[in-house]
Design brief:
This protein is of the alpha+beta class. It contains 3 helices and 5 strands. It has one domain: Roll (Nuclear Transport Factor 2, Chain: A). It comes from marine metagenome.
Length: 124
């Protein structure tokens, strides 16, 4: 039986707390970081993603490079992950980011797709 390296929990799936371990915990932590707007976390104004601030900027090389730099910075803050590649897409209503990541403890490749919806951003 494989030894558990990381333990945590999630309340995302509903009112019942769900235990997370290892790679599932690392994926949820990374998603939480991306879906937190920079400056939104109390006592930690530099935590979060600046992608939310770029949502309504014209999609050009500068904006795309800013999104990629933000992804590189966020992944670099979590030692469990190593970034292998980034692809970004923009449509009328959303920004999409696809990350190719290696989970360091097992050197397992994971593809993580993140969606940043402009309509959801307006409601918040």
């Amino acid at each position: 039986m494989a030894k558990t390296l990381f333990k945590g929990f999630s309340t995302v799936q509903g009112p019942k707390t769900r235990k997370l371990h290892d790679i599932e915990l690392a994926k949820q932590d990374l998603k939480n970081h991306f879906h937190t707007k920079r400056g939104e976390r109390i006592m930690s104004p530099s935590f979060g993603s600046s992608i939310w601030e770029l949502m309504f900027e014209p999609w050009n090389d500068t904006t795309e490079e800013s999104v990629k730099e933000d992804c590189i910075d966020i992944v670099a803050k979590d030692p469990r992950w190593r970034l292998a590649g980034i692809e970004t897409y923009s449509s009328d209503n959303a920004l999409s980011v696809q990350l190719r990541l290696f989970y360091q403890p097992t050197d397992q490749l994971e593809v993580m797709a993140l969606e940043f919806d402009r309509e959801i951003n307006e409601e918040v």
